[in-house]
């Protein structure tokens, strides 16, 4: 993705609600999730971690998503891990100011 495309995606993601995310196809959610994780790896922002959590939860709750119990368990654990990352990042930022 180009820098412009990434910025455009971020603006769109910031405006999306959980309900909007559920309207996306699971494949689109997964694609956006991969990009958000890459962005978090580069920038490490709490905002990106929160967006990752929203996308994971949208995948978990998506009506066309997998109902495989193992997949559902994996998504729940993945969301819990990202909540922990967001909390750690928020705590680090609070202590650095």
Rg is 14 Å
Number of DSSP-assigned strands: 0
Query: What proportion of the residues form beta strands (DSSP E)?
Result: under 5%
Helix content: over 70%
Quaternary form: single chain
Question: Cα distance, first to last residue?
Answer: 33 Å
Summing up helix and strand content along with how strands pair, one would put the structural category as: mainly alpha
Shape descriptor reads globular
Number of helices: 5
Provide structural commentary.
The protein is mostly helical and 97 residues long. It contains 5 helices and no strands. The protein has helices at 3-15, 18-22, 26-43, 46-61, 69-96. Helix 3 packs antiparallel against helix 4 and helix 4 (46-61) runs antiparallel to helix 5. The chain is globular and about 40 Å long. The model has no long low-confidence stretch (mean pLDDT 83).
How would you summarize this macromolecular structure in one to three sentences?
The chain has helices spanning 3-15, 18-22, 26-43, 46-61, 69-96.
């Amino acid at each position: 993705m180009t820098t412009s495309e990434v910025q455009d995606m971020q603006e769109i993601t910031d405006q999306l609600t959980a309900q909007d995310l559920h309207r996306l196809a699971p494949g689109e959610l997964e694609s956006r999730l991969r990009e958000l994780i890459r962005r978090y790896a580069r920038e490490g922002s709490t905002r990106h971690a929160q967006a990752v959590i929203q996308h994971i939860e949208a995948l978990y709750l998506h009506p066309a998503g997998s109902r495989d119990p193992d997949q559902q368990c994996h998504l729940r654990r993945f969301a819990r891990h990202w909540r922990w990352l967001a909390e750690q990042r928020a705590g680090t930022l609070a202590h650095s100011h």
